[in-house]
Amino acid sequence: ESSYDYLKVYDGATTSSRLLLNATGSFIPDSIVATSGKMLLVFTSDGSITNSGFDATFYSTRTNTIPAANFTV
Q1: Structure pTM?
Q2: Which residues contact residue 38 at a Cβ distance below 8 angstroms, ignoring those fewer than 6 apart?
């Protein structure tokens, strides 16, 4: 939901880490790479549920063939 729901992705374990993405609406980003070895996702919503949250697939750069995680919110 544009301007009401946000997804922020950080390169590290805290919100003081480098911000890699700040998205809202139906924006689909290119691949995001965390160089720290950790990635923090913060999804903020206004609480109204009109659309699904987001889909995400994570890959390890060591294997790059098997998803390390795959989930939908």
Answers
A1: 0.74
A2: 11, 12, 13, 17
